[in-house]
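Let's see one such:

===
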Amino acid sequence: MPFIRSRLKTPGQRPSTLKSGRPIMDKAVVTALFKKDVLHLIKTKNLLLTLIIVPLIFSTVIPAALSGFVLFSDVKSMMDPAMLQMMDKMTAGLNAGEIHSLNEKFLYVFTNFLYPSLFLLIPIITSSAIAANSFAGEKERRTLESLLFSPITIKELFAGKLLASFLPSAAVSLASFILSGTVINTASYILMGHLIFPSAKWLVLILVLSPLVMIMTILLNIMISAKVKTYQEAQNIGGIIVLPVIGMLIGQFSGLFLLGIELMLILSLLVLLLNLFLFNRVLKYNNRNSLFENQIG
């Protein structure tokens, strides 16, 4: 880490004791760590493929398949009475002139009730894959030891890795949002003559809930990957995070609840509180000695 070492007057001196006035959280050091992790991300083919293929499936393939279904199939012939009743419940608040056929109703229900939960898997899976590689990947490459011996603070180390996981995941989520919106709006314009995406619910999802869920996923995965020895092990444990989203899908399919704006805001508040707790744990629970012990263990 020549760049980081060049910031110090005395080699090996701890940042908090520098007389040169170096701040505890040095933005230049955090930026250097961020660039290092992003560069490695670009060079890691398997990880990069995950960030491309998974979002494409959820943002393009699935919406395109459902769009083709509503454009070229008779939805009513494939629905049982329970499903039709659930769709009526989901569209009860719409004006009579907004939806004219069952196919239009199906597209609206998929876009605004079922698909948002599926879309949440994009930021979860991408941020989980990157964050799981944060410490576990350093251990596999035998580079964590040099980081721990370099004169950087634990806060700088975690801040750099948090940014290196969050910003690429946010970029992928935004690109996926645009792609899925293009596919859905193309279908809605052909079928209904107007655009239905994005609704207010989608704006809450992409601007509030999705970033908070990404941060939660990253913090959990950083804590996990700091304690395990391999990237695969960290990713397997971190994969448990998708279970609540699957539960949301099951709950909506069964008619147990509907994912409306109010519920999204409540979920966002709960995730925010959880993030504050996790962030505090990340800063306090992990320390240089414990990370080094895991590195050589």
Notes: Residues 166 and 215 are 7 Å apart (CA to CA). The chain has twelve helices and no strands.
